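lol ok so funny story. i was supposed to be doing the assay writeup but got distracted and ended up predicting the structure for this chain instead. priorities right. anyway since i did it might as well share w the group, maybe its usefull for someone
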Amino acid sequence: MDKEISQAVIRRMPRYYRYLGDLIDKGVERISSYDLSVMMHVTASQIRQDLNNFGGFGQQGYGYNVKYLYEEIGKILGLNIVHNIIIIGAGNVGQAIANYVNFERVGFNIIALFDVNPDLIGKSIRGIEIHDYNELEEFVKNNKVDIAALTLPKNAAVESSSKLIELGVKAFWNFANVDIENEDNSLIVENVHLSESLMRLSYNIIRQDKA
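and the output, tada:
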């Protein structure tokens, strides 16, 4: 049985991947856990503990080979596999996601958008067609869909997620202001509540002002 990795560790892995990518761009070939800790503002001990969950990757007295560690973390995160994404809701947020080319560089392939707005249907974002929402069922049945990104109002998101679950979609990137129910833990859901992020920012601004 695979070792159970805490969600806290998993949340830190993309950040390691990003910083290591920056180091590669700067031509850095190896780095110690201490130097990496200074960059990332976490302890060297935390870095070693996190990476030891997956085998360690470092050598005492040498540190980490940056390119190798970057590639290994990419494999851990599944970035060596192409994930097909559909976007439900082709408004401002949906179009912004479709326009972000960096997703493709790490294996996330946006294959279609869907909307009910007749003014949007038939148009393309970076060559990715906006389909009529009524075509969703047929499209999912005829194409491999790994992830559905929901950029919809609350009620529409609930309805769409239920429909997609019936069609066999198991992973959701949810930008709607509602949590997708996952009572039997059969789904993989990443809820992205933008307003909550702004509220946390507001709290920290007020706390800093008071200090």
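The chain has two domains: 7-76, 83-196. The first strand starts at residue 30 and ends at 31.
back to the writeup now i swear
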